[in-house]
Amino acid sequence: MNLEDIKVAKKLLSKEQKIVIIPHKNPDGDAIGSTLGLWHYLNNHGLQATIVSPNDYPGFLKWMPGNDKIVNFESDSIGAKKLIEEATLIFTLDFNHLGRIGQLQPLLEEASATFIMIDHHQEPSDYAKIMYSDVSMSSTCEMVYNFIEFLGDLDKITPEIANCIYTGIMTDTGSFKYSSTTSRTHTVVSKLIELGANNTMIHNKVFNTNSPSKLHLLGCALKNMVILQEYGTAYITLSQEELDTYEYKKGDTEGIVNYGLTLEGIQLAVIFIENKEEKIIKISFRSEGDFSVNEFARKYFQGGGHNNAAGGKSDGSLEETTSYFRKLLEQYKDELIA
Fold first, then answer.
1. Residue ranges of the alpha helices (H) in the chain?
2. What region holds the DHHA1 domain (predicted)?
């Protein structure tokens, strides 16, 4: 953030506001951690703030302090709509285009509130008065920590805030192994632990609460893995029938795509997940090195994200989508096996 934006933010937060904080649709650990971390900070300062989530999120994130105060638009659309209409200040966290919030998009487009964006994805749109956008950041949670620091309030970070922010940094960096993890990231995490983040507890809550059906679904996914060594690529498919067989719950496929990158010689890993309710194939891309899955997803699969982690979707069938994907790989062979 530049000095002028910091001054404007301080002025906005120095007076009474009706604040709404919004994560992207299908929020992950970074989205929920950043919104809850900011929510605790604002409420601790006597500001009236509420989180409105476009839809539900994985159960392994619902232990976080303040989770029970989140308004889910899908289960309380009337209440959520009223909050957004009456808001004077809206924070949008972990997304930079209103197309990422599903059914909330028209409500935010019509909202009269002042907008503050905090996000680390590429190619932001310009809907916000204050845009704290930095693609070099490991996570939006690290940016929320910075935002609190810009406001001169690091000493106001409570254990509740520290736990929320730590969770988002941990999950969005793949437990600190992705290239977006910097020395600054580790410095922030160290400070969060000093301020009360319980790193062992957080890891156990996020990663060690699996159900048998979730592990069986993982086994199914790995059995479905297709390895295309000649293209440095591995991809996984999961049909709606397979999801139903293994009693899929939101969040059960989180992280499965990364298994492809554990194979020697693989630079691109993809998972294709059928969603018959939305009539789409949801796609997650991961890469190593210089191959930009952000550009690939934007160009071919209505998506985007980061250079090494992105999402997309297809309106075709699972078979049509994977067939199209395999044909595309022929254009990128030299890049993927370099």
1. 3-12, 29-44, 77-86, 105-110, 140-150, 159-172, 183-194, 199-207, 212-223, 240-245, 293-300, 318-329, 333-336
2. 247-331
Q: Where in the chain is the domain with CATH 3.10.310.30?
A: 212-336
Q: What are the mean pLDDT values of the chain's consecutive 10-residue runs (338 residues total)?
A: 95 96 97 98 96 97 97 97 98 96 96 98 94 96 98 97 98 93 98 98 96 97 98 98 96 95 96 96 95 96 92 96 97 90
DSSP code at position 285: E
Classify domain 212-336 by CATH number: 3.10.310.30
CATH topology for the 3-207 domain: inorganic pyrophosphatase (n-terminal core) (3.90.1640)
For the beta carbon of residue 102, count every other beta carbon within 10 angstroms: 15
CA distances, 89 to each of 3, 8, 148, 162, 333 (Å): 20, 12, 17, 24, 48
